[in-house]
Design a protein that fits this description.
By secondary structure, the protein is an alpha/beta fold. The protein folds into two domains: 8-124, Oxidized Rhodanese, domain 1 (3-Layer(aba) Sandwich), CATH 3.40.250; 152-264, Oxidized Rhodanese, domain 1, CATH 3.40.250. 29% of the residues lie in helices and 13% in strands. It contains ten helices and eleven strands. The protein has helices at 11-19, 35-40, 68-78, 95-106, 118-124, 154-160, 174-178, 214-221, 238-248, 260-264; strands spanning 8-9, 27-31, 47-48, 85-89, 112-115, 166-170, 194-195, 202-203, 209-210, 228-232, 254-256. The chain has a five-stranded parallel β-sheet. Helix 4 crosses helix 9. The radius of gyration is 18 Å and the shape is globular. 43% of the residues are buried.
């Protein structure tokens, strides 16, 4: 990560970066908002990525990691190489931006920053926007899984359940967690999983910025930095945000389960708790 660009980037900092006379041609701003909003207004210079491209999108587990060819197309289209610094944002408080951050980490492109509050904070606080679409300059990068530690499978989770230094962060709603809302063959949660819904770490009073007390909330719930934490939701979209928050807070052992509850709740050998 560029030494002068923090992992968590405030809108005023990004504005300063955009107006800087220094050489910042390696900075790529990626907008993961809806197509309609991007056409209407976006951060100046931002290129658009349809967030659905970050998922396999196929039944029965649409949230799984896409094929390497699909990921390579994304990286090349956006012009990303080993020298790039990505500034990422979306229009929902960080779910899709987080999914992209996780993808970048997995592929070894770890020079990224998150625009705190995303386009919501940018627009509401009066920063300049543009409507004209920007075309990225393609790269010829090849991709592979460079950092497999950030991806965890169902069997990996089963093998660590009950260990004192391992915790599962369930980013779904309390209804999904309890099993009252069933979105797979079975409802409920991974045994011992800790439920902190993703939106609980967004500050609605500060234009969806990450809450300033996020680290204390996690630690008090049993998701401290001393644990190896695996996070999931239904399709690893909401848990994209929770993964990204942990990374921003400096967690060294954070991973995401891309199969998420769509897979866990449908497999025959995965244990489930209710309530």
């Amino acid at each position: 990560m560029a030494a002068d660009i923090p992992r968590l980037l405030e809108p005023a900092q990004l504005e300063s970066l955009l107006s800087s006379t220094s050489d910042n041609h390696n900075v790529i701003i990626v907008d993961l908002c809806s197509d309609a909003l991007y056409r209407q207004k976006h951060v100046p210079g931002a290129v658009h990525l349809q967030p659905g491209a970050l998922m396999a999108g196929t039944a029965p587990y649409p949230g799984k990691l896409p094929a390497m060819a699909q990921l390579e197309n994304i990286i090349r289209y956006l012009g990303i190489d080993t020298h790039s610094h990505l500034v990422i944002y979306d229009d929902e408080g960080g779910g899709w931006a987080g999914r992209f951050a996780w993808t970048l980490d997995l592929l070894g492109f770890q020079n990224w920053s998150y625009l705190n509050g995303g386009i919501v904070a940018w627009i509401k606080e009066g920063f300049v926007t543009e409507a004209e679409a920007n075309q990225p300059v393609a790269s010829d990068s090849s991709v592979s899984i460079i950092n497999p530690a950030v991806l965890i499978s169902a069997d990996d989770i089963i093998g660590q359940l009950g260990q004192p230094d391992f915790a599962v962060w369930d980013a779904r709603s309390p209804g999904e967690y309890s099993g009252n809302m069933v979105r797979s063959a079975r409802g409920g949660h991974i045994p011992g999983a800790i439920n902190i819904e993703w939106t609980e770490l967004m500050d609605s009073q500060r234009n969806l910025r990450i809450r300033e007390d996020a680290e204390a909330i996690l630690s008090n719930a049993g998701l401290g930095k001393d644990k190896s934490v695996a996070t999931h939701c239904q399709s690893h979209h909401r848990s994209g945000f929770t993964y990204m928050v942990a990374r921003i807070l400096g967690y060294k052992k954070i991973s995401a389960y891309d199969g998420s509850w769509a897979e866990w709740g449908s497999l025959d050998h995965t244990p489930v708790e209710r309530g």
